[in-house]
């Protein structure tokens, strides 16, 4: 990948460096891209100029939502542009490709944080699911907030349970928030968290991501329709991530397709513990440096689980990931 300002490639004689503009990819279908100009905020439909190769990464999509790119105008009437190169990335979120073995699919690039939307019911988000996502986010160094939606449906005992979860997750660095999109509860707090940032929205189907986007982001429906026209199909496909601007504040939300597909890429068995902050901290005092925290004598992790200092649910998630069941789901 080249940095902005680097030399022009030989194979692009007709486009001078001065013609190149910077845009951000707001939607990618693999065939064409929606690009927003960084300065004018005008939207274009873009295609790649030849093949863009990524060093050291085997991925099915070279360009992802959130990528900054150099582009040049192709047709001013049709609003089409050509993408020349991807600018340096801060990070990416990768999942296993469902099409090609040993390949990854980049869900999004250059994100500041993830907002994991969870619900206690309709649908029920399991703790195993939350922990699995947190491990993925840790492995990409992406700060994550756990946002429990549909607070309006909860009974007192459910709220007590959420308080208990908060006491597990907040000391580990994952702030928790209870919201109700339907009743506008705590949406100001959520807005404060996402303001000025690019946030990845994740969660099971039905937790309220679209409802939230419709409240906080601008032109959600409009943009979706526009994109469908581009695709020349009558319908909006939800298989691809898409970026939306916050309506009243700076910042972006990236909506992601079915989280089911978010298989964790290439975490070795002996690395899993490193992505559980409490296990990472405790493992230094295990007797064996290569302790798996399953059966070894003098394992500090198991000791802390027994003492209630590491949550049993977290330890069970660790074991289940170690077994690999969840990775393959
Ligand atoms: N009671 C209640 N229902 C909500 C709330 N937020 C969203 N819903 C409802 O939950 C259902 C699913 O919401 P969506 O926004 O479509 O969920 P989603 O996460 O976008 O789901 P997918 O589009 O399938 O990924 C809808 O019927 C919403 O009206 C809430 O705060 N409380
Ligand atoms: Zn151990």
TrEMBL record:
Zn(2+) binds at residues 286, 291, 293, 299. It holds the Pfam family RsgA_GTPase. SUPFAM superfamilies: Nucleic acid-binding proteins (SSF50249), P-loop containing nucleoside triphosphate hydrolases (SSF52540). Keywords: Cytoplasm, GTP-binding, Hydrolase, Metal-binding, Nucleotide-binding, Ribosome biogenesis, RNA-binding, rRNA-binding, Zinc. PROSITE patterns: ENGC_GTPASE (PS50936), G_CP (PS51721). Residues 94-262 form the CP-type G domain. GO terms for biological process: ribosomal small subunit biogenesis. Binds 1 zinc ion per subunit. Its main location: cytoplasm. One of its GO terms (cellular component) is cytoplasm. It is an enzyme of class 3 (hydrolase). It is found in: Cytoplasm. Its cofactor is Zn(2+). One of its GO terms (molecular function) is rRNA binding. InterPro entries: G_CP_dom, NA-bd_OB-fold, P-loop_NTPase, Ribosome_biogen_GTPase_RsgA, RsgA_GTPase_dom, RsgA_N. The keyword rRNA-binding applies. Residues 109-260 form the EngC GTPase domain. GTP binds at residues 149-152, 203-211. One of several proteins that assist in the late maturation steps of the functional core of the 30S ribosomal subunit. Helps release RbfA from mature subunits. May play a role in the assembly of ribosomal proteins into the subunit. Circularly permuted GTPase that catalyzes slow GTP hydrolysis, GTPase activity is stimulated by the 30S ribosomal subunit. Monomer. Associates with 30S ribosomal subunit, binds 16S rRNA. Belongs to the TRAFAC class YlqF/YawG GTPase family. RsgA subfamily. NCBIfam families: ribosome small subunit-dependent GTPase A. This is Small ribosomal subunit biogenesis GTPase RsgA. It comes from Flammeovirga agarivorans. The lineage of its organism: Bacteria, Pseudomonadati, Bacteroidota, Cytophagia, Cytophagales.
């Amino acid at each position: 990948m080249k940095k902005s300002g680097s030399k022009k490639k030989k194979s692009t004689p007709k486009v001078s460096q001065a013609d190149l503009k910077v845009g951000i990819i707001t939607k990618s279908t693999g065939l064409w891209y929606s690009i927003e100009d960084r300065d004018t905020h005008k939207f274009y439909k873009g295609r790649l100029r030849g093949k863009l190769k990524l060093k050291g990464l085997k991925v099915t999509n070279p360009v992802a939502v959130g990528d900054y790119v150099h582009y040049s105008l192709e047709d001013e009437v049709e609003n089409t542009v050509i993408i020349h190169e991807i600018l340096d990335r801060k990070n990416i979120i990768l999942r296993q490709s469902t099409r090609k073995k040993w390949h990854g699919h980049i869900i999004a690039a250059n994100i500041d944080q993830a907002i994991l939307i969870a619900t206690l019911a309709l649908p029920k988000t399991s703790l195993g699911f939350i922990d699995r996502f947190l491990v993925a986010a840790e492995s990409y160094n992406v700060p994550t907030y756990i946002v429990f939606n549909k607070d309006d449906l909860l009974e007192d005992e459910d709220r007590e349970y959420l308080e208990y979860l908060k006491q597990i997750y907040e000391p580990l660095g994952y702030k928790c928030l209870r919201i109700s999109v339907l009743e506008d509860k705590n949406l100001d707090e959520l807005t404060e968290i996402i303001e000025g940032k690019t946030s990845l929205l994740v969660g099971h189907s039905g937790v309220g991501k679209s409802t939230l986007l419709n409240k906080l982001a601008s032109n959600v429906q409009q943009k979706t329709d526009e994109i469908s026209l581009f695709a020349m199909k009558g319908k909006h496909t939800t298989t691809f991530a898409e970026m939306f601007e916050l309506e009243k504040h700076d910042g972006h939300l990236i909506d992601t397709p079915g989280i089911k597909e978010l298989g964790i890429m290439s975490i070795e068995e002996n690395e899993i513990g490193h992505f559980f902050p409490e296990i990472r901290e405790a493992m230094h005092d295990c007797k064996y440096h290569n302790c798996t925290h399953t059966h070894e004598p003098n394992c500090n992790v198991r000791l802390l689980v027994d003492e209630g200092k590491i949550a049993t649910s977290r330890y069970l998630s660790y074991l289940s990931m170690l077994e690999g069941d969840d990775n393959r789901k």
